[in-house]
Design goal:
With 57 residues, the protein is mostly helical. The longest helix is centred in the C-terminal third of the chain and has 17 residues.
């Protein structure tokens, strides 16, 4: 815990991506092909990166 005060790094971004992936896996449990699930997860991540909040402009 002391390390978190010394170093400016944290793993919050990665934990958020892992959580999003787990939620998406739960939502799409009927997908039989792993490759299709992988593509959908990557596509979802790209959409989140490109999304711009209109209220921040």
């Amino acid at each position: 815990m002391l390390q978190s005060f010394i170093y400016p790094y944290n793993k919050g971004y990665i934990e958020g991506k892992n959580n999003t992936t787990k939620v998406f896996k739960r939502m799409s449990y009927a997908i039989k092909s792993f490759e299709r699930l992988r593509k959908k997860i990557l596509w979802r991540q790209i959409l989140q990166l490109k999304w711009v909040n209109p209220f921040e402009l």
